[in-house]
């Protein structure tokens, strides 16, 4: 039910946060698998180390972008499209 009835004005923010949470969850799952295999550090597997560093940079950029997007409402529309324009929902009719 919640999937088909997103709250007004928060759908674009939810899509943005979903991308951040997907990366975070995938990396946590990968780290769990590596830990269960007995790997104590990532120095032996440089591909995984590079992947975690790359995803860390992406997550940092997403968080910074979210802070900037939270400050200016019109940026949501300019970056993510007209579907994110919720200015008419709050205006008196």
TrEMBL record:
Keywords: Membrane, Transmembrane, Transmembrane helix. The chain crosses the membrane at residues 16-34, 46-69. The keyword Transmembrane helix applies. The keyword Transmembrane helix applies. This is Uncharacterized protein. It comes from Gigaspora rosea.
């Amino acid at each position: 039910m919640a999937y088909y009835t997103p709250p007004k004005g928060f759908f674009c923010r939810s899509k943005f946060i979903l991308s951040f949470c997907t990366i975070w969850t995938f990396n946590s799952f990968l780290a769990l698998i590596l830990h269960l295999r007995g790997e104590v550090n990532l120095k032996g597997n440089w591909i995984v180390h590079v992947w975690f560093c790359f995803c860390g940079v992406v997550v940092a950029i997403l968080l910074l972008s979210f802070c900037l997007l939270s400050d200016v409402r019109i940026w949501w529309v300019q970056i993510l499209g007209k579907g994110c324009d919720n200015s008419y929902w709050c205006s008196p009719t």
